[in-house]
Amino acid sequence: MVDIVDVATRSRMMSSIKGKNTSPEIFVRKILHAQGYRFRLHVATLPGKPDLVMRKYNVAVFIHGCFWHGHNCRYFKLPATRREFWLTKISKNQHRDQSQQEVLLASGWRVLIVWECATRRALRTADSKPLMEMIEAFLVGNDRFLEIDELLESDSGDAR
């Protein structure tokens, strides 16, 4: 399939995509703040510049977009054009994410990844309770790593 816009326009469009303060990130911040949790945003001194840092719980939170981080869910679809470019870019993002998580874990931080698809259902149904319960369980628990992805309608949630 041929792109419907020229290269310069596509480049401008892609460069305008935000890397922070995205809708899923703001949603997670709002539900955490509403429950009384406090955090710092985009702490540059930590590997990966986590979206949220909750020092009280020693937790670094990343809110990942399903496309940019190559999540294996129904919202990720590899573009039909320039497939090699996108495979390389997404693969580099995944390797960088992995190495940053390893450094954080090795230095004593706990890592929580909330995928965009986990926030979509909560936004669509206006029910953030299942997502918030999973986040709270991680915060007060002893697990060092948790990934929260699409919350399935058949159960209370699917976390890996």
Task: Explain the overall architecture.
This protein is of the alpha/beta class and 160 residues long. It has one domain: Endonuclease, Chain A (3-Layer(aba) Sandwich). 42% of the residues lie in helices and 13% in strands. It contains five helices and five strands, in the order ααβββαβααβ. A five-stranded mixed beta sheet has the order 1-2-3-4-5, with helices on both faces. A hairpin with a 4-residue loop joins strand 2 and strand 3 (59-64). Helix 2 (23-34) packs across helix 4 (116-125). It is globular, with a radius of gyration of 17 Å. The termini are far apart. Mean pLDDT is 87; it is low at 153-160.
Described by the principal axes of the CA atoms, the overall outline is: globular
Across the major sheet, the strand order is: 1-2-3-4-5
Q: How much of the residues is beta strand, in percent?
A: 5-15%
Low-confidence stretches: 153-160
The name of the CATH superfamily reads VSR Endonuclease
Give the overall pLDDT as a whole number: 87
Radius of gyration: 17 Å
The number of distinct structural domains comes to: 1
**CATH third-tier fold name:** Endonuclease, Chain A
Please state the oligomeric state of the protein chains shown: single chain
User: In percent, how helical is the residue content?
Assistant: 40-55%
CATH architecture: 3-Layer(aba) Sandwich
Helix segment tally: 5
Number of DSSP strands? 5
Sequence of secondary-structure elements: HHEEEHEHHE
